[in-house]
Amino acid sequence: MTPVNELGELIDQYHAGIDAELAVLRQLERIALRQHAVSTAHDFDALVGETDTRERLTRTVVAIEEGLRGLRKQLAGRRREAEQLSEFHSALAAHREAAELIARILSTDQQSLKALADAELARRAALSTLDRGEATLAAYRKVLTPPVASATLMNRQG
Question: Which of 52, 60, 90, 151 has the most CB atoms lying inside 10 A of its own CB?
Answer without folding.
Answer: 60
